[in-house]
User: Which sequence fits this backbone?
């Protein structure tokens, strides 16, 4: 029991610190608010980065959650013409849960359009992999618009595109999408 309390203390302190950093200045309801910060993370307006030991959960309203882990770099912006959020994933591992808004995730290899979906996305130097956990995501590679249903995965490199295949456990179970105090990925 004593060890369990010691584990939660750094999470609570990190949450308080990161909330103050993110919310300094304007208090915009459309800003992401951190719910969990573990390890080394950097947060600036529209820019999120985790180090090797870092894990960051961010909430935007009640219908949009972003999770980052393991050397991840993400920038988030609003496309004024399309009235949608755009997320640029340069490298790393993210999970996104979108319950109503439309989100465009851009990578160097392919794009992904989400609405009412939960996905995990991993970008390496040579490849992007997308696992759809709930809902449907539209995977966009060149002129190909490919709907990927829940329980499936797809991958692409600079000049290749995989077929849709059943998800692999390494992406499906990065997060269990439970409230942060019950999330198994934070127990490690």
Assistant:
């Amino acid at each position: 029991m004593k060890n369990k309390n010691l584990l939660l203390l750094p999470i609570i302190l990190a949450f308080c610190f990161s909330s103050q950093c993110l919310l300094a200045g304007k208090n915009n309801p459309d800003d992401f608010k951190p719910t969990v910060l573990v390890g080394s993370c950097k947060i600036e307006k529209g820019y999120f980065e985790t180090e090797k030991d870092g894990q960051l959960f961010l909430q935007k309203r009640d219908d949009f959650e972003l999770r980052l882990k393991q050397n991840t770099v993400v920038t988030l912006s609003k496309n004024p013409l399309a009235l949608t959020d755009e997320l640029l994933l340069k490298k790393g591992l993210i999970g996104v849960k979108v319950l109503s808004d439309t989100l465009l995730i851009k990578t160097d290899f392919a794009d992904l359009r989400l609405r009412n979906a939960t996905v995990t996305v991993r970008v390496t130097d040579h490849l992007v992999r997308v696992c759809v956990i709930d809902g449907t995501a539209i995977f966009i590679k060149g002129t190909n618009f490919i709907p990927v249903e829940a329980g499936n995965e797809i991958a692409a490199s600079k000049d290749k595109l995989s077929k849709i295949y059943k998800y692999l456990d390494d992406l499906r179970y990065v997060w269990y999408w439970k409230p942060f105090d019950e999330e198994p990925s934070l127990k490690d």
About this structure: The longest strand covers residues 84-106.
